[in-house]
Amino acid sequence: MNIKDVIRSYRVVPVVVFNSIDEVRPKLQAMLGGGLPIAEITYRTACAGEAIRIAVSEFKDLYVGAGTVINAEQAEQAVGYGAKFIVSPGFSTAVAAVCRAAGVPYLGGCATPTEIMTAIDSGCDVIKFFPATVYGGLPAMKALAAAFPQITFLPTGGISDKNLAEYLAWDKIFAVGGSWMMKGTPEEIKTKCAQALAIAKSVK
Ligand code: 3PG
Fold first, then answer.
1. CA distance 70 to 30
2. Which active-site residues does the annotation give?
3. Helix locations, 34-136, DSSP H
4. Protein residue with least CA distance to atom 5, ligand 1
5. Cα–Cα distance between 116 and 151 in angstroms, integer?
6. Residue 126 domain-assigned?
7. Containing domain of residue 176, as a range?
8. Per-residue pLDDT tens for 160-179?
9. Domain count, the chain
């Protein structure tokens, strides 16, 4: 199965911020324990690259991607370490070019028609919609989808177990991303990942 099919089958993408390398193994183990084998490790902290390298080399059952990738250098590093997908808060044609050359899906952030047109021009058919709740949530995505029927959405930002089902119920949702299930102790992470997965499975 290719990575897009994997993400589409789980429909939930955990967004992970590692503040130190010590957190990497316990959090990833907890997530896998909860049944969710996808991690978007974000370049919001200095240890992101090393965290991606460890995740890819030590967690063979995990589908590792890189998030908050804001330039070509980060994209190249993440792909070099084996990241299977790249996510950005906005849309970067430079990052898109790195991903295209590497054959790795790029889920770039778009909140306007112009940005979506740029994404389509770059060969993308899934866009991240961020920050989803601030930019109008489902009604905004539905209005955009009327003009861009070829696009599916990865909304993130402000989504939690409270509104996950509502987002997943719309058929243009590729998957939902968020950090809510990756916060707390390993035991809490395991429970929240399992809950997110159960919600996703209950909405078909
Ligand atoms: C992201 O990078 O996708 C978002 O920060 C996730 O948003 P959340 O923290 O509100 O879930």
1. 28
2. 40, 128
3. 48-58, 72-80, 93-102, 113-121
4. 157
5. 9
6. no
7. 3-106+159-202
8. 999 999 999 999 999 999 99
9. 1
Answer yes or no: is 83 within a domain.
yes
pLDDT digits (tens, 9 = 90+) for 43-63: 999 999 999 999 999 999 999
Can you tell me the mean pLDDT for 2-13? 97
Report the pLDDT value the prediction gives residue 204, as an integer from 0 to 100.
74
Q: The domain that contains 182 carries what CATH number?
A: 3.20.20.70
* Pocket of ligand 1 contains residue 179 by CB under 6 Å: yes
**Separation CA 191–CA 189 (nearest Å):** 5
Please work out whether the CB of residue 155 comes within 6 Å of at least one atom of ligand 1: no
> Cβ neighbours of residue 14 under 8 Å, at least 6 residues apart?
31, 36, 38, 39, 40, 177, 178, 179, 181, 182, 193, 196
Residue with token string 């911020």: 17
Count of alpha carbons within 13 Å of 170, Cβ hemisphere only? 21
Task: Note the pTM of the prediction, 2 decimals.
Answer: 0.96
